[in-house]
Amino acid sequence: RDTIQWPYREDHGKWAISLDHKRNPIVCLVDLNRMKSQFNRGGGAICLQSSKLWNLFKSIIYDIESCPANKVRFPSLDWLSSLPQRAWRKID
């Protein structure tokens, strides 16, 4: 394994994978900054539904650093499942 590690304050890579990879193998790649001082900057995100891509990203996770729970609010992602099926382009 690679021994280079960054704390979340220094990591500029922004991506996420869904927890439930059996029903929703979703990978999101984001160029938005998450610092409060940078909330007014524009940016974008793309989310893909792909088992192969999900497994690739899952395989590079070395450790999970939790966020301070009292400072972070996690929005609901229920809207993802409400997207019309045509919004998802499967790349498997």
UniProtKB/TrEMBL annotation:
Keyword Transport: no
Record's keyword terms, sorted: Hydrolase
Claim: ATP-binding is one of the keywords in the record: no
Superkingdom, taxonomy of origin: Eukaryota
InterPro entries linked: DNase_II
Any Gene Ontology biological process: apoptotic DNA fragmentation
Matches recorded under Pfam families: DNase_II (PF03265)
A GO molecular function held by the record: deoxyribonuclease II activity
UniProt family annotation: Belongs to the DNase II family.
Name under which the protein is recorded: Uncharacterized protein
